[in-house]
Specification:
The complex is a heterodimer of chains A (597) and B (511). Helix content of chain A is 78%, strand content 0%. Chain A has 597 residues and is an all-alpha fold. In chain A, helix 14 packs parallel to helix 17, helix 24 crosses helix 26 and helix 26 packs across helix 27. Chain B has 511 residues and is mostly helical. Chain B has 24 helices and 2 strands. Chain B has a two-stranded parallel sheet. In chain B, helix 15 packs parallel to helix 17 and helix 17 runs parallel beside helix 20. The radius of gyration of chain B is 33 Å and the shape is elongated. The chains are: A mainly alpha (597), B mainly alpha (511). Chains A and B meet through helix 2, helix 4, helix 12, helix 17 and helix 19 of A and helix 1, helix 10, helix 21, helix 22 and helix 23 of B.
């Protein structure tokens, strides 16, 4: 039995510092879950106080017994035990941690199990090769032949960490266990095995990859459940990377071709989603012969999900095509599909395409971009779905490098204006975020002429989130265009709002000043902004007044000590005597932060 | 799920109305109203367009009986041609021919005797498989909420419905021979049928439910397999995806399967109860199938009352912590269990159970409080409480007494008064004692709470955590040879100097 009482007595004996530890241990058994959880999170503290010996002989057995606890407690326990090596006495004792982690690896709840496996993987590296064979590998075997599927699923994640460091007989056993799990009767286990297939292949000797892994891969890729088949696609990437080029055609390609045409869209989706990795793994020749037509099919798939996933990969796929035939392949095979996708019926497909299509311009060069891509960009800029337009606008930098943004600016402007006034504030918010980027691309002149008024209009938007984003946007613009530009174009407009009849707009002035003072520097702040702030301290709305106090606190560091003493201090003192409690509070806070007391 | 869309920001073009411009939000109900009931085509990968137009064959009933069998098979083959129903203008004539033929086939197998000759089975099953077994399409709405949203309906339903109808009549035909059919209605067939339970179309799931039930009834050899596969579907639902549209239907079938289990229950069945049905209570969409689930659980308890304790403890383990709606469902299920509980079983679980009920009664959510207080309207539960009043009253008293003064909702306060009164009548003496000690008990609890907080603060002050992250690891190593490191604090340590300094920091800094 675990000696809490002993520790408690130590506490009672007058060693005050031990008492909390006793309590922690006691709380591990409290009936309130939250208290058990708090305590288990301090487990390393307890272990440290107990010392390595008692941690091994008393604490760990006690913890092993509590495995039927709530999942939340178990999760915390599983995590903690992964970092316990030193606390049980270093690598030579690390195997003491295996029994509790083994039990945790068999519980029902997935997050707990996964965490236990993660911790087991972590401490496996701390085992000596001998300990690995004596303690760790038997545990893996027990899990792999467990009755209930949970232990077998957990086992799948442990093969690859012990395989490289055990003797060849044990290696053969491990391979056998993995084979068994790949053809397990429970789909959950086959899924776990399929998801670890790539990882396991990486630690196997090449001969076994060819003999064992390929047959497992082929079997899993034609499993009756699509949820298993799609995981084989992931493994395909690792396996193809491991094999020499000349073996790919016979060992991998038949399965990959079959996956790309699978009857389940989930599998085809996975192929589309992993396309770039697959492309790199199989190399340029197979890409030319096999992947190009497969990719075309995915771009034309009957399910929008698959088309969207493929559309997302268009740029990467084109980029990674072998240089000698890149342009031809794009122009004759890919671009026609892309053109169709621009007018796809599904907005997610169009939007996925819009997020990458601009990247094609760097690959195709100026002339092709102007002739073939520009019409597509323009069409997408006019798309009915705002997300599509936003995605085009957010990627303007790629096209700017190739053809200059001027080619687009005529169409760009109406698109931006429309988004800027969209009914959904989230759309407006999204376009604001691209303003600094656009400003950089379009240059100060174009900006002043066309976009500045939009940026100012957002300051008086109905939605606070927009006003806030607009304020932040101004700061970024000033960082780009400089203080002088700010003084001429922005500051007057911002300060003008200080006299607005709507107090929300007057507050926006203050928020802008907070954001801009640093970027604008001492001179502009003292000369132009400070007087306005000070004047606003007489505002009749208390919210404005306490924001004056907050603003003063914020811009204080930018000001010189003279203005602080002669101008700021009296105003803050006045506000500190305000009748409104909040105004007082913030004025006092500002006084103390600025050390004006 | 990897294949669902990224949470799309609710961006949709529509005419900009003034109200929308102000807050940008539209009420969900308004958006709903705009949406049409959608129908969806099944994901038939690259459906081949039917190049040949179907032409009607002669009617079966106008054909001499000697030739009927040949024609029947021809018709079955004709019905293997699939059509794209999302395209409502193509193949109109052929679609109509197939519909009429299917109708005729349904009629043929349901009204005629002696039509199911052995040689027809492969063609029948082939026609059914070709039409029904398909990959279900991705959900139109990735955030599909079965409680709120209209389901997407199967576009090809005009044909598919008739095929289901045909399958059902085929199974129910008095001449139907399971021994012949089992070569075709095999594990693979069942597996594909089970996959279809994920269909979003409730009409389809309804047919599937009846059909699977018939198959379970007629094919003894498939029973264990069906149960195992349902098991797998549920486990995947609980632990992997939390998404499967046909859970309620499968549970409904199971309800009647459980009903037929022989006693004593096999270990396999008990495992199913404890490892599948009980954890299923944790899933997000519980509201959609809770009634069926609770029915299954109660069926088990009616079969074998010794399962009561593990079941109730299981439910208590998974008791919802944040979702009041689920809590109400759990309370409902507990009442169903209490309705049939044996008094000896009740004694085994009364303590943990009433600790939980005591928390529910004090819930700030009035529906939770109300649902648990309703237990006191149940005669049988009342009799159980009365029998064990000396155990239960102390567990309940604190919560009841407190909320009788504090609860914001007047209905709850009134209910609590009634419950207190009932309990007082059951054991007035104990009630008075508890009333008398209430204040002292609360104070003791508060003091304990305070002590705990102080201790945590003290612990923070010790900053043991920091030590263990950096230098602490070294002490752990250095202390390897000490049998009891707890004494180090008091005894001068002879090992490495660092141990000394860290220990003094660790154990002596709190005053």
């Amino acid at each position: 039995c675990f000696g809490t009482s002993e520790v408690l007595m130590a506490g009672a004996d007058g060693d005050d510092s031990l008492y909390p530890i006793a309590v922690l241990i006691d709380e591990l058994r409290n009936e309130d879950v939250q208290l058990r959880l708090n305590s288990i999170k301090k487990l390393s503290t307890i272990a440290l106080a107990l010392g390595v010996e008692r941690t091994r002989t008393e604490l760990l057995p006690f913890l092993t017994d509590t495995i039927y606890d709530e999942d939340e407690v178990l999760l915390a326990l599983a995590e903690q035990l992964g970092n316990f090596t030193m606390l049980v006495g270093g690598p030579e004792y690390v195997h003491c941690l295996l029994p509790p982690l083994e039990s945790l690896a068999t519980v029902e709840e997935t997050v707990v199990r996964d965490k236990a496996v993660e911790s087991l993987r972590k401490i496996s590296h701390e085992h000596s090769p001998v300990d690995l064979e004596v303690h760790f590998e038997p545990l893996v075997k027990r899990l792999a032949s467990g009755d209930w599927f949970t232990s077998r699923t957990s086992a799948c994640g442990l093969f690859s960490v012990c395989y490289p460091r055990v003797s060849s007989t044990v290696k053969a056993e491990i391979r056998q266990h993995f084979r068994n799990l790949c053809s397990d009767d429970t789909p959950m286990v086959r899924r776990a095995a399929a998801s670890k297939l790539g990882e396991f292949a990486k630690v196997l000797e090449l001969d076994y990859v060819k003999s064992d892994i390929i047959s497992l891969f082929t079997a899993l890729a034609s499993d009756e459940q699509d949820s298993v088949r799609l995981l084989a696609v992931e493994a395909c990437v690792s396996i193809a990377t491991l094999l020499p080029q000349e073996d790919l055609e016979t060992l991998v390609m038949p399965t990959l071709r079959q996956a790309a045409e699978d009857k389940s869209w989930r599998v085809r989706y996975m192929v589309a989603d992993k396309f770039s990795e697959l492309q790199k793994a199989v190399g340029p020749e197979i890409t030319k012969n096999d992947l190009v037509p497969a990719f075309q099919n995915l771009l034309k798939d009957c399910e929008a999900e698959v088309r969207a996933a493929a559309a997302n990969k268009v740029k990467e796929f084109c980029e990674n095509l072998p240089e000698d035939s890149r342009e031809t392949i794009i122009m004759t095979h890919i671009l026609p599909c892309v053109k169709e996708l621009v007018s796809d019926t599904n907005q997610h497909v169009k939007s996925a395409l819009a997020s990458v299509i601009m990247g094609l311009s760097t690959i195709l060069g100026k002339d092709n971009t102007i002739e073939h891509l520009l019409p597509l960009f323009l069409a997408q800029l006019k798309d009915e779905c705002p997300e599509v337009r936003l995605n085009i606008i957010s990627n303007l930098d790629c096209v700017n490098e190739v053809i200059g943004i001027r080619q687009l600016s005529q169409s760009l402007l109406p698109a931006i204006v429309e988004l800027a006034e969209d009914a959904k504030w989230r759309v407006r918010l999204a376009i604001i975020e691209y303003m600094p980027l656009l400003a950089g691309q379009l240059g100060v002149e174009f900006f002043d002429e066309k976009l500045n008024s939009l940026c100012m209009a957002w300051l008086v938007d109905h939605v606070y989130a927009i006003r806030e984003a607009a304020t932040c946007n101004l700061t970024k613009l000033v960082e780009k265009f400089g203080a002088e530009w700010a003084q001429n174009t922005i500051v007057p407009k911002v300060l003008g709002m200080a006299n607005d009849p709507n107090y929300l707009h007057r507050m926006t002035t203050l928020f802008c000043i907070n954001a801009l003072s640093e970027a604008c520097g001492q001179e502009i702040t003292t000369k132009h902004m400070l007087p306005v702030v000070l004047k606003m301290s007489n505002d009749q709305v208390a919210n404005v007044r306490f924001n004056v106090a907050k603003s003063l606190q914020k811009i204080g560091p930018v000001l010189d000590s003279n203005s602080l003493q002669t101008e700021v201090k009296p105003v803050l003192e006045k506000l500190a005597a305000d009748q409104d409690i909040d105004v007082k509070y913030f004025a006092q806070e500002a006084i103390s932060v600025l050390a004006l007391a | 799920m990897p294949w669902s869309y990224l949470p799309a920001v609710c961006i949709k073009m529509s005419a900009i109305s003034a109200t929308e411009k102000v807050d940008g939000f539209t009420r969900k109900s308004m958006r709903k109203a705009q949406k049409q009931r959608k129908s969806q085509g099944s994901s038939q990968f690259r459906t081949q367009s039917s190049l040949v137009e179907l032409s009607p064959l002669p009617h079966l009933k106008d054909t001499p009986s000697t030739e009927q069998q040949v024609l029947f098979v021809q018709k079955l083959q004709q019905c293997c041609v699939l059509f794209d129903f999302l395209d409502s203008v193509t193949d109109l004539k052929s679609k109509e021919v197939k519909r009429a033929t299917l109708n005729e086939l349904v009629d043929y197998v349901s009204t005629n005797r002696g039509v199911l000759v052995d040689s027809a089975y492969p063609d029948i099953i082939h026609m059914i498989s070709t039409n029904l077994f398909r990959t279900l399409p991705p959900s139109e709405n990735p955030d599909f909420d079965p409680e709120e949203d209209e389901p997407s309906l199967e576009a090809a339903w005009p044909h598919i419905q008739l095929v289901y109808e045909f399958l059902l009549r085929f199974l129910e035909n008095p001449d139907f021979q399971p021994s012949t059919a089992k070569r075709y209605i095999d594990q693979k067939f069942v597996l594909q049928l089970l996959d279809l339970f994920d269909s979003e179309d409730p009409r389809e799931r309804d047919f599937l439910k009846t059909i699977l039930h018939r198959i379970y009834g007629k094919f003894l050899g498939l029973r264990a397999f069906i149960r195992k596969q349902i098991n797998n579907i549920f486990l995947r639902f609980i632990y992997e995806t939390e998404h499967f549209n046909g859970v309620a239907e499968l549970l409904e079938i199971l309800g009647s399967i459980i009903n037929g289990f022989a006693l004593p229950l096999k270990a396999e069945h008990k495992q199913f109860l404890m490892k599948v049905l009980i954890p299923m209570h944790t899933t997000r969409g519980l509201a959609l199938f809770h009634a069926q689930l609770a029915y299954c659980v109660v069926q088990f308890l009616e079969k074998d009352s010794t399962l009561t304790e593990p079941v109730v403890r299981g439910l208590l383990k998974f008791w919802p912590k944040t979702c009041s709606q689920k809590e109400v469902m759990f309370l409902g299920e507990i009442e169903e269990i209490l309705d049939i509980i044996e008094p000896t079983q009740f004694k085994k679980i009364q303590e943990p159970l009433f600790k939980q009920i005591s928390k529910c009664v004090a819930s700030p959510h009035f529906q939770v409080a109300e649902r648990s207080l309703y237990f006191w309207n149940n005669e049988y539960i009342l009799s159980l409480i009365e029998e064990n009043i000396d155990k239960i009253l102390p567990l309940m008293f604190g919560s009841l007494y407190r909320i009788s003064k504090e609860h914001w909702n007047q209905t709850i306060v009134a209910l609590v008064y009634n419950v207190l009164k009932t309990l007082m009548e059951m054991n007035g003496k104990l009630f008075d004692e508890l009333t008398a000690s209430y204040k002292a008990d609360r104070q003791r609890e508060k003091k304990k709470e305070q002590e705990r907080e102080d201790l945590w603060e003290k612990l923070e002050a010790l900053k043991l955590q920091d030590v263990s992250n950096s230098r602490g690891l070294q002490i752990a190593q250095n202390n390897n040879n000490n049998n009891n490191s707890l004494t180090n604090a008091e005894e001068p340590n002879t090992s490495a100097a660092i141990t000394d300094s860290v220990n003094s920091q660790t154990f002596n800094c709190a005053k």
